[in-house]
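Pilot study result, target chain (221 residues):
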Amino acid sequence: MLRTNESLKATLDEILNENVDFVFLMEVAPAWKSPLEGLLDRYPHQKLICRDDYTGVAFLSRYAWDHLEVVDTNDANPPLDIFFASLVGQPGPFRLIATHPLPPFGPSMTAARDRQLNTLARRCQLKQATLLVGDFNLTPWSPRFRQMVDAGGLQDASLGYGISPTLTPLPTLIGGLKVDHVLVNSGIIIRNYQLKPCAHSDHKLVTVDFTIARPDHEPAL
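Predicted structure:
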């Protein structure tokens, strides 16, 4: 998303065309609240935090969650930690942690970003199948990214799908920066990973098709 995006219908149409079960949006402004609530027939379960700055987020789901927590990280834009019980076609429960930490503009904001990501990585250490998603304001080539991945026992869902940028209007060798990520622990199997342009946004749509590796109560082989 883009906070200054005024072409709401075009953007929402592209999102709806993906026909996904869960949607996480960032930079969600107050003007988006009514259009998003208009999607209740498709996404009856919603958590909207609409703000005038770039810290607003929205989570839309076709399925009811068992628990949703707004994680207190003592920073400007708290993440969402959503737990789902077993869904149709899935062998067990899973959790989805969605975040958009502060950009690294100066030492204090960089430290806040790192604290938030490290806090979330620790949450991924549980045996429960977990996805950690969002705009991390961090590229995969940063040592901080590797530290977070190692700390949480995580894997980049984009491995094997290339290194295409997700934030595009920047003059780099690959045409932008890869800052939007999907990380998973060993309880999640990625079936497909795609990037697509999104109308009137400076970020691409990131979509993944995933399943759960095994129920939590079954031991790993």
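One observation from the pilot: The first strand starts at residue 22 and ends at 26. A full batch analysis is planned for the follow-on phase.
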